[in-house]
UniProtKB/TrEMBL annotation:
Molecular function GO labels: GTP binding; GTP cyclohydrolase I activity; zinc ion binding
EC identifiers of the protein: 3.5.4.16
Regions of compositional bias (Low complexity) in chain numbering: 11-29
Record protein name field: GTP cyclohydrolase I
InterPro entries named in the record: GTP-CH-I_C/QueF, GTP-CH-I_N, GTP_CycHdrlase_I, GTP_CycHdrlase_I_dom
UniProt xrefs under SUPFAM superfamilies: Tetrahydrobiopterin biosynthesis enzymes-like
Gene that encodes it: folE
Length: 259
């Protein structure tokens, strides 16, 4: 007899759903005791010895079905923020759905790099034993300043010096990995280091270089309101750090692509 038939006709529908989907049952239990889901996720992170800084990925601590509930919790909190800003979200047709839109934007779009697992990346062996400089970019990046949650918009270049034991990945995968790392509240210096660590782990090259040029709307839109300034920083690893000739070649070729 299957699970559905094993339940008596008068049993609640919820009981049938719980047997069919244990994950959904766990999520429901989390809701039943009144503890906010965000608190439970934080407890899981800490119990594993991890942290939940703004630019950390916490996807492994979020169970199936919980992302939608977390989005609902953020929506509820955003209602409170709008009300505290003295915005009439009941009668102002422009803001009646703003809390839902903002919650969806944070969880599913601009901060998705916190809540979703990394994109699948197939790694290929370096069958041709390539050992020449490769440059990928400019790749458009979008992030947000961890201090003010204002947009950061810019471009990324990646330089790779492979060896015969290096892994190769498809060109589109660089863009997907960049988007995953940058789709979190970041500061630019840490974002570049996180991206370099990820690519180093995937590729295992002799040398790796990452350059990020970005505009920060926390300077353009507020504060000093300087719309012309940009920030450029880089991370050099392995042969790019040791070999000044290779580094100059990379920066020279990068300058041509940046025009």
């Amino acid at each position: 007899m299957d699970d559905a038939k094993a339940i008596a006709p008068h049993a609640p529908v919820e009981q049938a759903q719980a047997q069919a989907n244990p994950n959904a049952n766990a999520v429901s239990a989390a809701e039943d005791d009144g503890t906010p889901l965000s608190v439970r996720i934080r407890e899981r992170v800490l119990a594993s010895g991890g942290q939940y800084f703004a630019n950390d990925n916490i996807a492994e601590h979020i169970r199936e079905g919980e992302l939608e509930l977390l989005q609902k919790e953020v929506e509820s909190k955003m209602h409170g923020v709008l009300e505290s800003l003295v915005i009439d979200i009941e009668n102002d047709h422009n803001t009646q759905d703003t809390a839902r839109r903002v919650a969806k934007m944070f969880i599913r779009e601009v901060f998705k790099g916190r809540y979703h697992a990394p994109p699948p990346v197939t790694e290929f062996p370096n069958a041709a034993k390539l050992s020449e400089l490769m440059i990928i970019g400019p790749v458009t990046m979008r992030s947000a300043c961890a201090h003010h949650l204002c947009p950061i918009m810019g471009r990324v270049w990646v330089g790779v010096m492979p060896n015969e034991h290096s892994n190769l990945i498809g060109l589109s995968k660089y863009a997907r990995l960049i988007d995953w790392v940058m789709s979190r509240p970041q500061i630019q210096e840490e974002a570049v280091a996180q991206l370099a660590d990820l690519l180093q782990d995937k590729l295992q090259p002799d040398g790796l270089a990452v350059v990020l040029e970005a505009e920060h709307f926390c300077m353009h839109w507020r504060g000093v309101k300087d719309s012309q300034s940009k920030m450029v920083n880089s991370v050099m690893r392995g042969s790019f750090l040791r070999d000044s000739v290779l580094r100059r070649e990379f920066l020279s070729l990068l300058a041509n692509t940046a025009k």
